[in-house]
Amino acid sequence: MKLSQLLPGQSGVVKEFTDLEMSVKLMEMGCLPGELILVDRFAPLGDPIAITVSGYQLSLRMQEASTIILDQI
């Protein structure tokens, strides 16, 4: 399942990435394989989304979120 498919309140564990270039940027921001991600909320028009990862909040565009593959818990 992709991060962009989760609804607010749902969570998952980072499994892998679909875009190599984007994965470097995301890993620098704390989205490492094995990390728990919680979807907090969506912006009023649905983009970006706010997530909690590695103990802090992060905003991602839906395009960025769609490159993160999760194991849903």
UniProtKB/TrEMBL annotation:
Instruction: Provide this UniProt record's keywords sorted from A to Z.
Output: Iron
Named from the GO MF annotations, one term is: transition metal ion binding
Q: Where are the transmembrane segments?
A: none
Q: Which domain of life is it from?
A: Bacteria
Q: Extract the SMART domains matched here.
A: FeoA
Q: List the protein's name.
A: Ferrous iron transport protein A
Q: What is the lineage of its organism?
A: Bacteria, Pseudomonadati, Bacteroidota, Sphingobacteriia, Sphingobacteriales
Q: Which organism is it from?
A: Arcticibacter pallidicorallinus
Q: Which Gene3D superfamilies match?
A: 2.30.30.90
Boundaries of each Ferrous iron transporter FeoA-like domain copy?
Answer: 1-72
Specify whether Iron is a keyword of the entry: yes
